[in-house]
Amino acid sequence: MQLTFLGTGAGLPSPSRSVSALAIQIGREVLLFDCGEGTQRQFMLSNLSFMKVNNIFITHFHGDHFLGLPGLIQSMNFSGREEDLHIYGPEGAIEIVSSLATIGAFQPLYNIHINELSHNDEVDLGFCSVIALAADHTIPALSFIIEEPERKGKFNNQKAQKLGIPKGPLYSQLQMGKAVTVGSRLIEPDEVVGPSRPGRKIVYSGDTRPNKELVDAARNAEILVHEATLDSSLEEGALEYGHSTARAAAEIALNAEVKKLILTHISTRYEDNNILEEEAREIFPNTLLAHDLMTIPVRYGDFQQ
Predict the structure, then answer these.
(1) Range of the domain at 132
(2) Is 304 among the domain residues?
(3) Average per-residue pLDDT in the chain?
(4) Do residues 203 and 186 share a domain?
(5) Residue 28 shares a structural domain with residue 165
(6) pLDDT band at 305, cuts 50/70/90?
(7) Of 139, 173, 191, which one is at a domain's C-terminal end?
(8) Known catalytic residues?
(9) 104-111 — which CB contacts under 8 Å span 24+ positions?
(10) Is residue 125 pLDDT above 60, yes or no?
């Protein structure tokens, strides 16, 4: 698994930051969260291909989070896409995305499926689930929780050897949850296989004021990607426009006991971004400020505090 920050700015692009787009690669699949203008070009500058994207999740319909869709859809078409594309978003997604997908005289040659999500709706993709959470913004908006299925427990070779289980097919059967017979004894899987282990969990806040629901949803996540539009000296303005400060994001990370916090959606007012990272680290030391095209691998056991 890896996270690639295609765009990390807020509101409008700047010379150093494109607007919101986050790609999460899980195996061969690439999920895209938000699609600000120019996202297809950001893909070209990264080590990912937009042709691998089959599922796009839009947090809300402010321009810096979705206006890259027409260009991306057309680029996919010009590149010979044949696979279906699934686009998910909050209330209004069907009408808005339908109009964008066929803007002007353009008509894609592949199928686009548009789905509207509400609070607690879950999209089961098999290799992971994406759960929608109502965000606290100025228009209908969502946060997303990305969770892998549980993993099988660890196989204890020493116990297996003590029980006289010969290496080979019987090990595989036990790992698949099937009991085996060795001599006259029936051996159950839980005698040599430990309890199941959780998969990795990533949380993407989108644009939101701080809220308790996100704290609960992000509990024990490997990574919380949280917007940090402004610093705490501008907290009143942040809240008025439905945003969070870097300090508020750090407090959410601390209360949710996540392993790592990554700040994104940075206002163009900041020439020196260190103020945001430093502010957050005072509360949650394991904080990183995202920059465009930054890639973060997420291996099991990474980011322990």
Answers:
(1) 2-151+199-297
(2) no
(3) 93
(4) no
(5) no
(6) very low
(7) 191
(8) 64
(9) 106/70, 106/74, 106/77, 108/73, 108/74, 108/76, 108/77, 108/81, 109/77, 109/81, 109/82, 110/76, 110/77, 110/81, 110/82, 110/83, 110/84, 110/85, 111/84, 111/85
(10) yes
